[in-house]
Amino acid sequence: MNAFIRWLFGIQDLPVGSEGLRLVWERPFPGWVWLIIVLACVGVAAWSYSRLDANKRLRWGLASIRAILLLILFICISGPMLELPRERVEPDWVAVLVDRSRSMQVRDGDDTATGNRSKREEVLQEILSNAGPEWRDPGDSRRILWLGFDEGVTELQNTESTEDGENPVIVGEPDGWRTRIGTALDETLRRTTGRPLAGIVVVSDGRTEEPPDRELVRRLVGAAAPVQVVPLGASVPVGDAAIGNIEAPRRAFSRDAVPVVVRLDNRGRRESVRVELVDEETEAVLDSTEVELDGDSDRVDAVLTARPDASGGVLEGARRWTIRISGDDDLVPENDIASVQIELVDRPLRVLYIEGGPRWEYRYLKNLLVREPSIESSVMLLSADRDFAQEGNTPLARLPRDAAEFGRFDLIILGDLPSGFLTKGRQDAIREVVERRGGGLIMLGGTQSMPSTWEESVLADLIPFSGGFDLDRRAEPVMANPTETASRLGVMRLADVDETMDTEIEGWPIDLSDPSFGWSQLQWVQRIDPERLKPTAEVLATAVPVDGDAMDQTPLVIAMRFGAGQVLYVATDEIWRWRYGRGERLYERFWVQLLRLLGREAVESDLPVRLTVGPDRVEMGRPVLVTVDLLDTSIGITAPETVLVEAVDEQDVIVRTIELSASGEASWTGSWIPDRLGSVEHRIAEWSLASLAGDQSAMVEVVRPDDELRLADADHDLLATIAEETGGSVHDIQKSEDQRSVFDRIHEALPNRAVITEIPLRERIWTSPLFFLVILLLVTVEWSGRRLGRLD
């Protein structure tokens, strides 16, 4: 269109070179109105010239011109315009929520190519790569919002590639520690507010701690945003066994049998698995056990026992042991392994045994202490004559007087002696050794004085039961019966590996459960009312009547923590009877295991300063208690008002300096809250105490409280509920009747909610020079014709 034509039509606003112009009307008339207008114009023009006296052809010619002129006037009234069609497309939005939590690393998908289980993340990558071109280049009428979600929501970056087989989006690694589907859906509604939303696609395993609430579901329905879900993971739980809590001593004797209690968290797994304890330095398997998982119990305890001196490697210093679960078809192999660090001490257990009179239990226990190579003993028989040579590996000429002298022993055994035989000062010293230094104390019940004469003594608080201490004797013989607590602590394991054991009690010889042998019966046992046990007391063995009356069981061996140490009370002095049946083996294992149990706590009192940090495994955001004790106050240092302890991460970077306040005469306590994951080592930084502590340190493992892998089974029912309540659908990854990819099926199910708005550009032409010239020409021609025909 050249400039003359644009001038002729009066075009000013329409772009030069516009194509697709069309004629429209500013005031459009219906077709029947135009018919009437045309007839009226013709009728008026014909009537106005019908009575004039002139040539017929001239009259009809002038009438036609007038009819055309009238019609043009009506056309001007209707307002003809040239229109350039234009439209604005407001695309609809599709939000795709992709699960980026750690549960995507779970292997419960079927890999048809290899037959092995594939990770949920691998399945996700496959379905993304199979997505059709409409998910890579949706065109002008649609926008796709890719969002990754775990505990928060992040926008994912689109890839530049439009080729098939390439992922349309960069998803990154699934490393979120929790899944919040409700938060993700809420954030999606917020980001798409005011935009036409065609739907929300959720690609997830459905495992979440925060499902959408009723209010959020109502908002989704109100926004007409159906949720299309793609469930990942197995619809039927595969089952998973994970290593949960681990209980192991921080320090132990290198020639000791060290128990490690492993708690397995079982979620639906039904099979037998092997739990192994492995030395990381030598890679030797220290111990292993078969654990039967029935699928109904969510927690199973396994006890592994290792002798560090039998595994090779160093016998003193830090050793790291690995606990692992072996078995097939596990859901999350990553949680099948954990490790603990143990400080080994290569020296014998130092035991002080104080007895009142030479009873049978004294004779055999004394011989055991002297004979056992891993024990260094001192035995004091108080009823002996002055000329009697006291026995033991390191005989004593007199009883220790104060805490410093008693503190040379890891464990003290008090036999059947009156409380008056020990002065108040000596009793105070024994109490301090147990309470502050972590020493062990065994009280061996007797017919004369233990515990009847100790009720008003300083050590009465250390006895694990309360009330009157004048105990009655059980009237009938009893059998010893270990408890689950004993199994967890690694004691009362008297049977050989190939020996017939009691099916209900792990490690317990079946002969000790059979009263017909006679020697397995304990004839003298004190009756202790279970209701009188102190709150922190634990029963390691019970006395069961020979007739098997379970209602008449009473505690036989009782353990109780007291301060930093541990106390054990044995309500019989007839364990020696077991020698009749099997020689020294049963008797020796019974006592050595109990002695080592109490002696482990005392290992930490070798140094004059003790650093204690707990718990060993703490959730991030929970407090860690740090305690420093000055065990030997005789070294003559001035106790500071506060003590500094440094918390160091795995890169040896100080993450926190904790200031401990005085909590006693020679004790300091403080706490801190870790804010990062990983292992944290604690060291004493106070210069006056650091040299006394040596290389002593304490490790704490900081873990997430909401680890996704603790409960990793997929929750397809939740996804189906979300889809149903919002009007969406569940799209299985594979459908036998439809071989299209899941994203192609979702694309077909999504409605088109793009909004198209017409915004044409119009130009009036009835005010243009063309209309003016045409009207002027017609008027001039009619006027001239009338003049020539002398019709005026």
Structural overview:
The protein starts with a helix and ends with a helix. It is built from 16 helices and 38 strands. It has five domains: 3-85 and 761-788, no CATH class; 90-237 and 713-755, Rossmann fold (3-Layer(aba) Sandwich), CATH 3.40.50; 240-345, Immunoglobulin-like; 349-605, Class I glutamine amidotransferase (GATase) domain (Rossmann fold); 607-703, Sandwich (Immunoglobulin-like). The mean pLDDT is 85. The strands form nine sheets. Strands 22-21-23-24-28-27-26-25 form an eight-stranded mixed sheet. It has an eight-stranded mixed sheet with strand order 29-31-34-33-32-35-36-30. Strand 26 and strand 27 (554-562) form a beta hairpin.
Which shape, going by the Cα principal axes?
rod-shaped
| Beta-strand content | 25-35%
CATH class of the largest domain: Alpha Beta
| N- to C-terminal distance | 43 Å
The average pLDDT is 85
What is the count of helical runs? 16
CATH architectural grouping of the largest domain: 3-Layer(aba) Sandwich
The Cα radius of gyration reads 46 Å
**CATH superfamily name of the largest domain?**
Class I glutamine amidotransferase (GATase) domain
CATH topology heading of the largest domain: Rossmann fold
Q: Class by helix and strand content?
A: alpha+beta
**Helicity, as a percent range:** 10-25%
- Main pleated-sheet profile: 8 strands, mixed
Write out the strand line-up for the largest beta sheet, numbering strands in chain order: 22-21-23-24-28-27-26-25
- Overall tally of structural domains: 5
Uncertain stretches: none
Q: Tell me how many strands there are.
A: 38
